[in-house]
Amino acid sequence: MRLLRRLRIEPFILAILAAVVVAAFLPATGGAADALDWVTTIGIAALFFLYGARLEPRELLVGLTHWRLHSVVLVATFVLFPLLGLLGQWLLTPVLGPALAAGFLFLTLVPSTVQSSITFVAIARGHVSAAVVSASVSNLLGVFVTPLLVFALMTTDGSVVITWDSVGSIALQLLLPFVVGQLLRRWILPVIRRIPRIALFDKTVIVLVVYAAFSEGVADGIWSTIGAAELAWLLVACCVLLAVVLGLTELASRALRFEDRDKRVVQFCGSKKSLATGLPMAAVLFVGQPIGLMVLPLMLFHQIQLIVCAWLAGRYGRAADAASA
Fold it and tell me: Does the domain made of 14-319 have the CATH classification 3.40.50.10800?
């Protein structure tokens, strides 16, 4: 437990890993799988409804005053990452196979995190209010941009098939609940705030999505195709991807002569990928396909980014404190 605290591995991550282990030995099959499918479908819709209810629209308007900073974050999230994802998919397909390589590309298409991005910016003594806006805008646009990027980049080589049924599922499970949540925010938000530990609902849905995805993989026998070498290559690829993005966002901030506190926003908000948003999207977008393999790169990258960025933010924070002292 002491080691886990040092590595900042949250109980949520442990719950996700536990879901993978349980799915490996006790996968949901038959009627249980059908019931789980309905539960996750309803849970994903409720999750995006809550996302819409929580997002403060006025934050987006305030953020327009820092348009250069937010533009760099969005370019890193939805342009730089996908370009690196395409390059990574091309390089990794011979060693990982098409499914895992497609999953590597998918992780680069999801939006940035909100909570961890803001937390790391705060630890690094960065511009917290700007981080709130950048992370929120990324998640808001991600609901629309990520499916479009999947359509544009992942359906051209045949590794992913998107049908009109998938389009309808995206609209019903992601976009419609999100918009309804925004419209009803005035009445729903006070109710949400009175519910203790409402965040557990979000995490429970994610854990169920992971369990359902890996159960399907076990039932289909796809895990027999993954070996230690493939996992090692995938870990290395995720580490290299994070290092490249952290380095390029730092260089871009220096080139644009941002203040130090704004540099931290660009680096931490521009280098994150959201597990909480990406997993439900994968469950909707990749119906009938090896979802377990699709989301495995995102799960690994998420944990790596938490460990590395926690260390980096602490280093920045200590340097800033020393400078002010």
Answer: no
